[in-house]
Amino acid sequence: MAKNRAWIIGASQSLGAHFATRMAAEGWAVTGLGRRPAAEAGLPAEVTYVQADLSVPETLDGLAEKLGDVPELVVYNAVRYPAQSEGPPPLGELEAVFRVNALAPYRLLLDLLGRPREHFCSCVVVNSDAMYHAREQNGVYSASKAALRVLTGTLAATCRGGDAAVSTLLVGPLADPQKLAGLRRVAEQRGVTEAEVVRAFLRKTNTNLVIDALIDFESCYQGLMHMARLGPVANGMMYRLDGGSSGGLV
C-alpha cells in the first residue's frame, strides 16, 4: 500500500522540523523544504530534503513541479523576520519578508491547486497571532502575516466544492528550543524559576494574550493532523492555538 505523501515547506528547524519528523515516524512519505543546508537541518533520513531560499524570486519558478506529484498534504510553515538594523529597513528587506511570509505561499499553493491530481489535497498554512497586533517592533512582520491571512482566504474560496482544502493553523508564542534556552539562561542568572521568567516574558511581549506558558509543538502537530483528517470540511477553517487566552478576538 502506497504511503500518504506530505510536503513541509519550512522544515529545516523548529516547528516545521517537528512536523516533518512526526509525520515520517507515522509512516508518511515526507518531503521537507528549507533554507538551511541539509547537514544543518537535522531531519531523520526518512525525510527527503530540498534546500531552497524562498526569499529569492526565481526560487518559486516551477517549484511545485520540482517537488514532485501533488501530495495528500501540504504544510506551509516558512517564515522570515525583518533583519534588525538601525534606521528604516531597506526596501529589499521589506520585500523579502513579504515574499516569504505571504507571496510565496500564495503563489506556491495557487500553482499546486491548478495541477491535475487523482486524490484530495489538504493545504494547511501556519500563521501567527501577530497578524492582529502591530507594534513598533514587529509592524512589518505583523503586516506580512495579515496579508497571508487575506491571501489564504482567497485560496480557500477557489477550493470551495472541489478536491482540495486550504486552512489555517494560527499559533501564538511557541516553545521553540532556542527561545526556551534563552529563557532558561535568564532564570539561572536571576535565581528564579523558569516558569516565572516565561510568565514575565509573555506578559511583556504578548500583551494581547492571557497565558502563562508557551505553546508546545506537539499541540500544533495534533491541530495540523485534525485539519488534515477533516478533508473538505476544513476548507477556510482557522484552528487557533493561543494557550487558552481570552485576550484576543478572531
UniProtKB/TrEMBL annotation:
InterPro entries: NAD(P)-bd_dom_sf, Sc_DH/Rdtase_CS, SDR_fam
Family, similarity comment: Belongs to the short-chain dehydrogenases/reductases (SDR) family.
Keyword field contains Oxidoreductase: yes
A GO MF label: oxidoreductase activity
A Pfam family it matches: adh_short
Organism for this UniProt entry: Streptomyces hoynatensis
Keyword Oxidoreductase included in the entry's annotation: yes
Keywords, ordered alphabetically: Oxidoreductase
Transmembrane segments: none
Protein name: SDR family oxidoreductase
